[in-house]
Amino acid sequence: MSLVQRIQDDLAAHGLAPLHRFGQNFMIDDRALAALVELAEAGPGVRCAEVGPGTGVLTERLLAAGATVLAVEIDAGLHRLLTAKLVPLGLHLVHGDALDGKQSLHPALAAFAAEPWRLASNLPYDVALPVILNAMAMPNPPARIAVTVQREAAQRLVSRPGDPAWGATACIAQAAGTPVLVRRLGPGSFFPPPRVDSAILGWSPKRPLPPGFPGFVRAVFAYRRKVLPGALRDAGCFAGATTAEVRAAVDSACRTAGLDPGRRLEDLAPDEMLALHAALTAAQAWADPAAPHHSH
After folding, report:
1. Which of 158, 238, 269, 279 is the most exposed place for a label (fewest CB within 10 A)?
2. Is the domain of 98 the same as that of 198?
3. Quick check: is 33 in a domain?
4. How many domains does the chain have?
5. Burial class (CB in 10 A: 0-12, 13-18, 19+), 20
6. Domain match, 164 and 235 both
7. Residue 207 CB neighbour total at 10 angstroms
8. Average pLDDT over the chain, rounded to whole?
């Protein structure tokens, strides 16, 4: 029996159909599924989180490899299907949204990440980048990310300064680790077929991100075409300072970070952005808006 027929039969047995509002395009490409399991390095003793398991075609392969799997599924019908099909085989299943607001993952995923873990998923397009970026920014990021995403999203994550796709998303991902576009997947790799190409994306960590760094990158990239003094001032650094004071403070921070203050914000490489953020934080010129404020 083909994989697409198995998926259709599983859905029919539970009175279900793919839901566009949840971005449900189920993977029917055996080679791609095997590539995800291999990329995640799933095996005995490995802990894998999966977002949007669908009917469980990747889940059962992760379990068969010997991995411990926590899956988060938002669809109540698919949650029932997986409860009957894979929970008896050891799947840890949570019904809910993988995103807990814009800046964090579901509490079950946060708890799972307290010990070494990996993220292996055929991600729904509309939550793919927030899930990936929030996972990368956790105090304990995944030791490996192995996911399918829209090809355009994968190309954005692996872009470099100077590329049209370069932006805050790529800078954050590459400051934290190394993303790799493993291979393209056509619409025929999924049921129902999406209107766009997909890709297998891998990522491995380099360093934990300093607190507030993702928010800083998003704020300054809103002024990406400006040279550093203007970009940093407009992003909210040096609040209340005069133009001359801003320029002097930027010159000082840039010297500390080893940067030319005449450069445009969008031309900075991830390591340079990390150095700039560290210099500004040390000079108390940038405060993370998401950080708790303590009154004295």
Report:
1. 269
2. yes
3. yes
4. 2
5. exposed
6. no
7. 11
8. 93
User: What global pTM score does this model have?
Assistant: 0.92
Question: Which residues are CB-neighbours of 45 under 8 A, at least 6 positions away?
Answer: 66, 68
Q: Angle, to 10 degrees, between the axis of helix 168-176 and the axis of helix 270-282?
A: 90
Longest dimension (CA), the chain: 72
| Residue in 72, 24, 71, 35 with CA at minimum distance from that of residue 190 | 24
Whether residue 173 lies inside any domain: the answer is yes
CB atoms within 10 A of CB 256: 15
92 pLDDT higher than 60: yes
For residues 279 and 257, the answer to whether their CB atoms sit within 8 Å is yes
Does residue 292 surpass a pLDDT of 70?
no
Q: Tell how strand 47-51 and strand 145-150 pair up.
A: unpaired
| pLDDT score at 239 | 80
Tokens 């010129």 map to which residue?
A: 285
In this structure, the answer to whether residues 201 and 223 fall within a common structural domain is no
Residue type, 241: A
What number of other Cβ atoms are within 10 A of residue 82's Cβ?
24
